[in-house]
Amino acid sequence: MTKFHAVMLDETRCEFGVSVTARSVNEAFKKLSEAYPESRCVQLESPKDRARREYRLYRNAQCEYDGEDLYGEHGSDDY
């Protein structure tokens, strides 16, 4: 089981966060739609997804600080 974090958008277009434990992304979406039928999920992130996002943010900030070309000649942010 994985604990996912979701950013939800309610019927008044206000964002709120919620965590859900599920075996897969599809199961997490299903649980969220059942628990919050008036809302929609605008972002769903696993701990692994969060770690990747945080790594990219850190790497981008470090490259900018160091004055380095983040993407080099290939223009990709793959790692």
Describe this entry's structure for a reader:
The protein is an alpha+beta fold and 79 residues long. It has two domains: 1-45; 47-79, no CATH class. Helix content is 39%, strand content 28%. The protein has helices spanning 25-35, 47-66; strands spanning 2-9, 15-22, 40-45. The protein has a three-stranded antiparallel sheet. The longest helix is centred in the last third of the chain and has 20 residues, at 47-66.
Distance between the termini: 27 Å
Biggest sheet, in brief? Answer: 3 strands, antiparallel
Structural class: alpha+beta
**Largest beta sheet: what is the strand line-up?**
2-1-3
Strand content: 25-35%
Q: What fraction, in percent, of the residue positions are helical?
A: 25-40%
The poorly predicted ranges are none
Order of helices and strands: EEHEH
Give the strand tally: 3
Work out the helix count: 2
Number of domains: 2
